[in-house]
Amino acid sequence: MLKQVEGSRAVAEAVAMCRPQVICAYPITPQTHIVEALSAMVKKDELAAEFLNVESEFAAMSVAIGASATGARAYTATASQGLLYMSEAVWNAAGLGLPIVMTVANRAIGAPINIWNDHSDAMSQRDAGWLQLYAETSQEALDLHIQAFRIAEELSVPVMVCMDGFLLTHASERADIPEQAQVDAFLPRYEPRQVLDPGDPVSIGAMVGPEAFTEVRYLAYERMRQALGVIQATAADFATGFGRESGGLVRPYRTDDAETIVVALGSVLGTLKDAVDELRADGLKIGVIGITSFRPFPAAASGQHEIHRLRPFAFLVGQIALPALPGFGWFVLFVVPILVPTALGMANPRYVGVATAFLTKEHKRLGDLIAGSLVIREASFRDLQPAWQTAAPESGVAGPLLGAERLIYGRVGTEQIIVRSEEGQPVPAPGSTIRVAPREDRVHWFDGTTRKRI
């Protein structure tokens, strides 16, 4: 049924049709309208669920863990500092393999206090073991919640459905609300893999030694790897049952002949598609790839639009752009609403996934270093040229300096060499020859000294 509806209300109706048995909530902007709507449904006996008002976000996730461990279909929602507050329990839920579904209404993390949208909250938990699915529209947010319960319960892993705060949660737009019978046919009755039963007591999540812990973490990785196929299959079944495509791993838009590709996730994709249409009309070959599944990241996903098949060598991080490198063909703009300190410098946490997927193994190391400096010194790349393309197998050809970073890039056969010149040491001109001993971690420099390979 088509109707004009606030994004939060659409999600609440979708969650209700998934028949959760326990809903635990602590209000925090901008997710509050979702749990308010669910609480009203429970009070009016429109939803047969136990709704628990708890004293904090940590308690909300703790209740969800307890409910799920006893065999109940559990749901909660949070945002921003609320997600940080429940962080300890978020990791526990994943480690225990509990199929909890949680909405994250993406909002910036303070200080300063900022109730508006960015993805820093969900990104802070990107390695916690939860699947993360990002919605472009309110319609997709609705659809992803229905898919999330099925994915979570099939794999026995928790799932975050991320929707942009205010831009989606509070905006009213047309949405197709499915019938209860459609959801029931798509989402089977919950059959938990493990259940805490007082009549047959067991312990879960007890202390283990390093060897068992490592095995558990590996199994968590395997579930993430399996999730790539499950997400795709679930999206295909959803399209069959509901008559519209939604979810999946990635969504390419006008990328077949693109020379410039924009990579993004969330509600900004709608704006980007409009911009692509306008630029295409002006003759620019540009396209967009929208990432729906950030965890697991679809680097090795099967299908026509594998991200790693593209070969970009430039990114837009924040507001700083790097010109495309001559001779490599692809120029990628990476549109992001979040910058954080990383080992690569001031960068975006999504870069790690995108660079791993985009950059071929041959150029991966160069990509790491480019990202490390990109948002710090735009001028570092002023003279960047692909001088290393003609490197001879027996010698390394020094690539160009990256400005103040004082980095030299070379190659020996198929092995990539990157050398950092220490402060005060001589630096050769671009194109100078350096001698490299294979499989050594020292590089023989042009002045007779050595430099540590990085």
Map the helices and strands.
Elements: E1 2-6, H1 7-17, E2 22-25, H2 32-43, E3 50-53, H3 57-69, E4 74-78, H4 80-85, H5 87-95, E5 101-106, H6 120-124, E6 131-134, H7 138-155, E7 159-164, E8 172-176, H8 180-186, H9 210-242, E9 250-253, E10 260-264, H10 268-281, E11 286-291, E12 293-295, E13 316-317, E14 320-321, E15 331-334, E16 340-342, E17 345-347, H11 350-358, H12 364-374, E18 396-397, E19 407-412, E20 415-420, E21 433-436, E22 442-444, E23 450-452
Parallel strand pairs: 2-3, 2-4, 4-5, 5-7, 6-7, 10-11, 10-15
Antiparallel strand pairs: 1-8, 6-12, 9-11, 13-14, 16-17, 18-21, 19-20, 21-22, 22-23
Helix pairs in contact: 1-2, 1-7, 3-5, 7-9, 11-12
Descriptors:
454 residues, alpha/beta, Rossmann fold, 7-stranded mixed sheet, 23 strands, disordered C terminus
- Determine Rg (CA atoms, Å): 25 Å
- CATH superfamily descriptor of the domain at 2-242: Thiamin diphosphate (ThDP)-binding fold, Pyr/PP domains
Relative strand content: 15-25%
Overall pLDDT, averaged?
Answer: 75
Structural category: alpha/beta
**Main pleated-sheet profile:** 7 strands, mixed
The assigned CATH architecture of the domain at 2-242 is: 3-Layer(aba) Sandwich
Distance between the termini: 58 Å
Tally the helices: what do you get? 12
CATH class of the domain at 2-242: Alpha Beta
Write out the strand line-up for the largest beta sheet, numbering strands in chain order. 3-2-4-5-7-6-12
Helix content: 25-40%
Produce a short descriptive summary.
This protein is an alpha/beta fold and 454 residues long. The protein has twelve helices and 23 strands. The strands form seven sheets. A seven-stranded mixed sheet has the order 3-2-4-5-7-6-12, with helices on both faces.
